[in-house]
Amino acid sequence: MLDESERSKLLALARGSIAGGSHRQVPEPLPPGEWSSRLLASTAAFVTLTLRGELRGCRGTTEPQHSLAEEVWRSAWLSAFADPRFPPVAAGELASLRIAISVLTALEPIACANEAELIESLVPGVDGLVLRCDGARATFLPEVWKSHEEPREFVRQLRRKAGLYGSQWPAGMAAFRYRTETFDSGEGAALAA
Fold first, then answer.
1. CB contact set of 165 (below 8 Å; sequence gap of 6+)
2. What is the Cα gyration radius of the chain?
3. Which residues touch 54 (CB under 8 Å, ≥6 apart)?
4. Dihedral of the alpha carbons of 48, 52, 53, 54, in degrees to the nearest 10
């Protein structure tokens, strides 16, 4: 678990990445700072942006590629300017954005031979889920359970997100669970000066 100081540093880091960025160029390398060992540890994370309660961008990694601080720095910029579902965040939206950071645990393989076994093993509202099959891959953070509370619907929507249509469980399907520590900036406080 991160302490309040570490959470505040990560939220400020995400804020700085968005405020100093532009949709035309990727962010500079992580700015220097005093980072705790937990913030320098290689950790997967997502940054989710909402505007007036609606999703405005969400990007991250399910497997660590950088330190937690670097993942938040990069994911904040990607959420604001490179989520293909949305146009880049405009300067006029910055003050109203809510930033949420989800720090992920390591992926845990789920032994399942079919969708029913997968559904039976899930803990609704707690488990994040990754599905992989033949190059297709998608994830839902645990927060997505708020939109898809029924486990069967949660899995089916994730399969659709991955482009895995049809009623049959595909051969070679792999499933992984993870948990998150999620915290946010609060409504309208994300990028206030």
1. 159
2. 17
3. none
4. -70
Q: What are 38's two structure tokens?
A: 């937990």
Residue in 111, 98, 105 with CA at minimum distance from that of residue 126: 105
Q: Which residues pair with 183 in a beta bridge?
A: 101
Residue holding tokens 């300017």? 81
Confidence at residue 192, expressed as pLDDT on a 0 to 100 scale: 29
Q: What is the largest CA-CA distance in the chain?
A: 52
CA neighbor of 76 nearest in space, from 95, 106, 48, 53: 48
Determine the Cα–Cα distance for residues 48 and 174; give it in Å rounded to an integer: 25
Cα separation values, 91 from 66, 94, 100, 115, 192, Å: 28, 6, 19, 44, 12
Which residue, chain included where needed, has tokens 């994370």? 45
Q: Is there a contact between 56 and 49 (Cβ–Cβ < 8 Å)?
A: yes
Cross-strand bridge partners of residue 72: none
Report pLDDT digits (tens) over 168-190. 888 899 999 999 999 999 754 43
